Structures are given as C-alpha cells and as structure tokens.
Amino acid sequence: MISGVHALLYSKDPVADRVFFRDVLGLASVDSGDGWLIFALPPAELAIHPAEDNGRHQLYLLCDDIEATAKMLAQKGVQLRGPIEERNWGRVGTIPLPGGGELGIYQPNHPLAHSRVMPGGAVR
Hints:
Layout: H1 14-24, E1 29-31, E2 37-39, E3 60-62, H2 66-75, E4 85-87, E5 90-96, E6 102-108
C-alpha cells in the first residue's frame, strides 16, 4: 500500500536550496546524514497531465492565500518571479530558488484531493 510520496528536486546548489526550504519556507526536516536534509511536506496530491514527451515534471506548493504567502516570502527577501496569474484552476506564481531552479505556487480554486483522505489513508 502507498504510504506517502518522496519527491526529488535537483539543484546546482543543494545546500542553499536546503537552507531556503528550512529557513524561508519553515519546513521541518530530518538529517539523514552529513547535512542531507529530508523535508516533511504538507498533504500532497498528484495530477496527470497530457504531454508530447515523458519525463517532464513540475512541483507546485499549495497555499490558501497567495497574496499573504507572497508577502511572507517578501519579508524574508524572496520576490515571486513575475506577477500572480489567474488561471481557470487557481491563482499561480513562481518562487525562485537560490540554486537557480524555481517552484510553482498556487491558490487552488478546485476541490482538493487530499481533503478527502482521512488519517490512515481511508477515503471519505
């Protein structure tokens, strides 16, 4: 039975990105050895989109209020890359990472799959 998701981000500067996730985003972590942090994530969901080629994946962080989240990030020295955009599925922005990558962030306006999962994995 599936018990969780372990997502990977690849970075040219993993130390800086780990500090960002720990200190800026405030995610709890464990040190699996030699400073290699593995971060706890909030509830997650997975969507499968059509594509011409396989192997392309994206990671979006969800938030309840994208303006408040952007303001919190700005107070920590992080500006969203570009304006917040309105999409049919939510309001979306881009967070630049210190290692040169980026993460999507969005305030969904659709039902959330993870809200249907009860402790222990049963579905409501």
